[in-house]
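Hi P.,

Sorry for the delay on this. The queue was packed all week, but I finally got your sequence through. Input first:
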Amino acid sequence: MNQQNIINEISKQKYDYKHTSQAEDLANSLDTISDDIYSESERFVYELIQNADDASNDKQKNLEIKIEFTQNFVVISHNGREFNDKDINAISSVGKSQKSENPNQTGYKGIGFKSVFGKSDCVYINSNGFCFRYDKSNWTNHTHKMPWQIIPIWSSNVPTELQKTQFGKYPVSTAIQFNKEKGFVGAELKQTLVNLFSNSQIMLFLRNVTLISIDKDFSIKRTKTLISEKALSKTEKFLLSTVSLIANSEQTDWIIGDFIGIELDTETKTALKQDEKAPKRLKETQFTNISFAGKINSKGDLIEIKENSLIFTYLPTKINKGFPFLVNADFLTNAPREGFHEDRVWNIWLFEQVGYKSIEWLRELASTEYKYQIGNVIADTFSSEKAMEKAFNEGYKKAIKKVAFIPNENDKLLLVADALIEKTDIDEVIKADVLIDYYNATHKTKLTAESIVNKKMKSLSDLIKLGVKTFEIKDLENFFASDELISTLKVKDNFKVIKFLHKKATNKKNADFWKDYIPKITFIFNEQEELCAPTTPIYFPIDDFETELSQNFDFVHSEVLEKIDKNSEIKDWLREIGVVEPTPKNIIENTISRNLDDLTDTKEKSIKISFYRDWE
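Then the structure:
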């Protein structure tokens, strides 16, 4: 049977009804599908792009889509697999899809193509020797309303303006007639599509489409480069790639992680088979894929996505869950891609996997140049009680306990439970073992020196929200007073500590915060090799200070003082925070006045003050 006979046979099957009510009921249903579900004029383009992406073949892996505008039509052509009679049967039916049993194709409902009829009353298709149209005007004088959207009409002759385009010159071409009454106007549609492709990541997760062009005015190109591939299990592998999207001269760059071959557990398989609403291809599937995308800015940094963080089902939906990354998976959405089917077994299980895999993705990124920026793409858990979001939380929390993804100082990966953010940098002058011993003793933990998170890590607040422990400036006072530090810090190393704290206190970053805490820290050795704080107080010695008086005060250790005297900047800083030479005034202010409350006898207080005044 030749192509024309095939079209005529399908057409006959679709318009021959025993009862007119059958035709009218189907026609009304198709109007609802076309007009109500697909209300936006650009939505049909999504569906045609999806069809093109699913139309790859062994000969043509990199698909191109060309969109052309004439006075009365928009023509969408691609160089993928040509139509056959089964394809034409499928688009001339409702709920029947060639893809419904193919796990490697996106569509499954069998109604996607009907979106073109939401705005147009006439659509031409040319492919593989088939040339036909769906045309509402052909049935205007019919005795009853007909489901024209599924009745193909053989078209030997097409409008002259289509002959001047690529219609019929590509393996598949679809020409959609404009309709002013429905607000379907060429100039507006063209601008809408240019904006759509310019401002979104529409091509990011497509399997095969690499180029979309609109007349000679606009094009968007996708280039994907595989960086690495690794096996995660017998069935699952992870692919890490970079993707560049170039819309005219504007380029955006992405890092993509593809988890391929995620195996369904037995419980989910059973539940899917019992779910009457699940598509056949999902009832029988054994594996699925999930992909994540992080945006790379012009400086080459991995950054958080704050806007347009949409969920993808290979093409973007309108669903935004507030993730700092983009995620793509084979979710079940409603026809216009505006919402999930929240109660479906498949979606609930899949969202749990997204939660778990989002942490595994961080682990894989931690082996790349973006390892210190993974905090920018850490998701938050949800607070709602919706089934899908609760499932995400469960997967996420499981992964937090099991997956090591936080680089330590040697870039070894740590679990959240084993990680410590050392925010003071004190381990630059005091061994990390000493700090960890102190932390373990005071917090009943079992950390090691390898538990300290790499200091190059960004977005520490996101790690802290996950439960990573911290050692902060406010903890230094107790640390310096601890047995762990006192027993290990030596006089010969004291100046290193003083120099370190001076650097922190005079650095513009957090300087005011450090200034508030440093005077309270016991970080200066006295002559008895005891650590004192500037507010203890502790003094610089002077030559004419009487022995009887000097034994009542703490003076900076001579070995430490020798090094301080060689650095006037540090000595001036120590004076600013309270370490000064003893004078009657500062002795009364710093020592006597602070301790007067300890003296109960008024006469004794007077004698004490007079004693130091007389010394002057």
